[in-house]
Amino acid sequence: MSIIQIIFLLLSVMAVGSALMMITSKNPVNSVLWLIVVFFAISGHYILLNAQFLAIVNIIVYAGAIMVLFLFVVMLMNLNAETEPIKNRRLQLIGVTSGGALMLIIISAVSKIDVEQLVQINAGDSGLIKVLGMNLFKNYVLPFEISSVLFLSAMIGAVVIGKKEEIDIKK
Amino acid sequence: MLLAIDFALLLEKLILVVVVVFASLGIAMYTTFAERKVAAILQDRRGPNRAGPFGLLQPLADGMKLFFKEEIIPNFSSKFLFVMGPALAMLTACMTSAVIPWGDKIDFFGRTVDLQIADVNIGILYVFGVVSLGVYGIMIGSWASNNKFSLMGGLRAASQIISYELAMGISLIALLMITGTLSLKEMVVQQQHGYWNVVLQPLGFLIFLVCAFAECNRTPFDLPEAENELIGGYHTEYSSMKLGFYLFSEYINMFVSSVVMATLFFGGYDIPFFDESVLSPNLAAILGIVALMTKVIAFIFLFMWVRWTIPRFRYDQLMHLGWRILIPLALFNMLATGGVILFFNK
Amino acid sequence: MQALTNKAKQVDRAPMSFIEKMYLPAIIKGMSITFSHIFKKKPTINYPEKTRPFSPVFRGMQILNRDAEGRENCTACGLCAVACPAEAITMEAAERQAGEENLYREEKYAAKYEINMLRCIFCGLCEEACPKDAIYLSETFTPADYQRKQFIYSKNDLLIPHPQENPEAYKKALGNRANKITVN
Known about the structure:
heterotrimer, A: mainly alpha, Four Helix Bundle (Hemerythrin (Met), subunit A), 77% helix, B: mainly alpha, two-stranded antiparallel sheet, 12 helices
C-alpha cells in the first residue's frame, strides 16, 4: 500500500464514521460538529484528487459559513436531546421510504463501479483554479450565469427583507 | 513507496514549522506585554515595570500565574467540548502562518531553504479558510459553558465574523484581480518589482483593515467579550490556562492578521525604495525578515492604538457598518477595479 | 435660565453631514489626540525608588524620643493619653532604679507605652501635650499588616534608635520635623 492509499483509507473511515456519528447522535450540536468533521474528510479527498481549490472552498463555504449558521441556529434555539420531540408513525414511515429510495440509488450507482480501479488519485488538474475558471467561463457559461442570476435574486431578496424591518422600526 | 519521501525536505519543513510556531507564540507573548505598555503610555501611565528589567519578564509572570490558577470545569457543561473550545481557538490561530512567506530564499550550507512552510497555489484562500474556522473555538466553548452570557458572546462572535468575512472576501477579490494569483509568495514578488498593493487598492485595504479588526474581536468590535454587558462573553466560565489560551489566541490572531496585511498590501518582506538583488541572497533574506517584522510591529501598534482610542460599537451599529456600508463599498471597489483593469488591458 | 458661566454648550442634534457619517475624520482626530499623549509627562512616581517630598506639617507615625545621651525622655505623666481624642494611647509608669540613669532621663519612666494605630487619627495633639518633648509625629507611614493585633505598637516599636550606638538611624528617624523642636 502506498502512503496515498493509506491516507485515502483513513479519510474514508473518518468521513463514513463521522457521518454515522452525525446521524446517530442525540444532541443536535454534536450532530453539527460531526458534520463539520465530515466536510473536513471530504476536503481531504479533494486534495488527494489534486483539487485544492475545491477543497478550500468546501471548507470556507460549508465548514466556515454554512455550518456556523447551522450551529448558530441550533444554539440560539437551545435544542437539546431532551427537547427532541418523538416523531409520529407517519413521519417515521415517510422518513424510512425516502431514505430507502436514496439508498437504492446509491447502491445502483456503486454496483456499476469498475472494481479494478477503486481509488482514483491525482485525477488530472480539473480542480485547479485556472482550469476550473476556464471551464466555467467557456464550456459552462450558461449554467454558471443562470446560477449567478439565482444568487443575485437571493441577494436582492435579502436586501428587501432587511429594508422592510427598518421601516417597521421607524414606525 | 513509503521511503520515497525527501527526508531532508521533511526535516527542513519540520524545523521551519517549529520555528514559525514558537516565534509566533513568543511574539504573541510579548504582544500582551506591549499591549499593556502601549495602553499605559497612551494614558500617561508607566505600565508594568516590576518583573525584570523594564518589566520584560511580565509575560512570563502572567503565564505562570495562569498556569497555577485553579482549573474549574462547570458541572453541567459538556466537558469534552469545554476543553476543545480553547484548543480549537489556539489551533486555528497557529495554523494560519503556514502559507506566509517570511522571507526570500536563504542559503544554508549549500542548501537553498525557502522561508515559507508551504507555497500552495491557493495561499490566500487557505488563510481565509482557517480564519473562518476560528469562530468554532469561540462558539463551541461558549455553548459548552452552559451559561447564558457565554452563549450570547458566542452568538455575537459568530454573526459578527460571518458578516465581516463577506466584506473581507469581496475586498480580497478586487486585490486578486490585480495580482492574478492566489499565492502569497508571488504577490510579494510582484510588489517587489512594482508598486505596493496599498497604492493600487487603498479602499480595498481600508475595508480589509476594518474587517481584520472585526475578525480578531479587537476593540471597537470586541462585542463577543464586552465586559460591561456580558461579564466576559464567551470566556466567562473559563479559568486557568484554558482562559489563557483564549486570550493568547486573540494575540496570535492579531499577529497573523498583521502579517497577512503586511504581505498582501505592504509588500511583505520587500524593503521599500531599495533593490534587494544587489545584496548577497542571505543578507537580503535576513533584511527582508527584518522589514516584514517592522511592518508587522507597526500594524500591531495600530491595533493597540485604535483599541485605546475608539469606544466599542453598539451591536446594531456593528451590523449596520458591516452589511450596509462595508459590503456595498467592497462591491463598488470590486466593480471599479474590474472596470479599470478592462479599460487598460484591452 | 441664565447660565452662571459661559462654559455650557448647546447640544447639537442636527443630522450628521456626509463627512461626519464617514467617521474617518473623527477617528483620525481621536487617534491624533491619543498619539499626542505619548509625548506627555507622566505624573506617576516610581514609589519605592522615589518618594514624594513631605510637606513640613506632615504628621506620620509617632516616635518616642531620646535625648542626646540616649536616655528616654518620657516620664509617663499621661498628658498625651489625656489629650488623645481617639484614646489610642495607654501607658504604665514605673520608678527608675539605681543604675538605670543612663536609660531614663528622670526618676519616673514608662514601663509600658502602647499606641493603637488603628485608633490613632494622627492629629498630633499628643505631641502638643507633651511637656518633655518625648513624643512627636515623624515622617513615616504606619506600614500595612495582616493582623489587627499587629497594629498595637509597643514601646519597642515606637522608640527612636539610640543616638550614640546608631547615629545614622537616629538621624533618619528624627527627620526634619525635630529641627523646630528645641532639645533641652
